[in-house]
Amino acid sequence: MNQALKNTQIDNEIEKLVTREISITLEQFTNLLPKVDKSMLRTSSKQTGQYELVNRAGTVHINCSQSNPRQLGSLSVPVLRVDLDFSGYQSNQIKAFMTALDDVFVRIG
Q1: 10 vs 22, which has greater pLDDT?
Q2: Kind of pairing between the strands at 17-22 and 75-87
Q3: What CATH number should be reported for the domain whose range is 3-106?
Q4: What is the biggest distance separating any 2 CA atoms in the chain, rounded to whole angstroms?
Q5: Are strands 75-87 and 41-45 parallel, antiparallel or unpaired?
Q6: Domain regions of the chain by residue span
Q7: pTM, whole model, 2 decimals?
């Protein structure tokens, strides 16, 4: 396998793993996730913070973990780490999904 092809495959795999930090709680995330695309949500578990979204493009596995809150003066802000693993998605489909996700969650967190 030539080096250029190998690097392209690695780059494609890297961009299929996305991490975000959102200033909301796990409960808020669970309630808002269906607004990204209601037809996609297959399984969810608020207890474990794991979700699976499925559509024709592929599957998105989401793993959430609540981090220590950030202190902004006297204000305590929740921090939720969201790891998204895209399977079967092309780059443009990932970008479209992330835009939809950001549109929903930027308003809140």
Answers
A1: 22
A2: antiparallel
A3: 3.30.1370.80
A4: 56
A5: unpaired
A6: 3-106
A7: 0.77
Which amino acid is it at 89?
Y
Spatial separation of the C-alpha atoms in residues 34 and 78, rounded to whole Å: 21
Express each pLDDT in 39-87 by its tens digit: 777 777 778 889 998 888 889 999 999 999 999 899 999 999 999 999 9
Which residues have CB under 8 Å from 41's CB, separation 6+? 33, 34, 51, 52, 53
Q: Which residues, 6+ apart, have CB-to-CB distance to 50 below 8 Å?
A: 43, 44, 61, 62, 63, 64
Q: In what order do the strands lie in the sheet with 75-87?
A: 17-22, 75-87, 58-72, 50-55, 41-45
Q: Among all chains, which residue has been given the structure tokens 């990204």?
A: 36
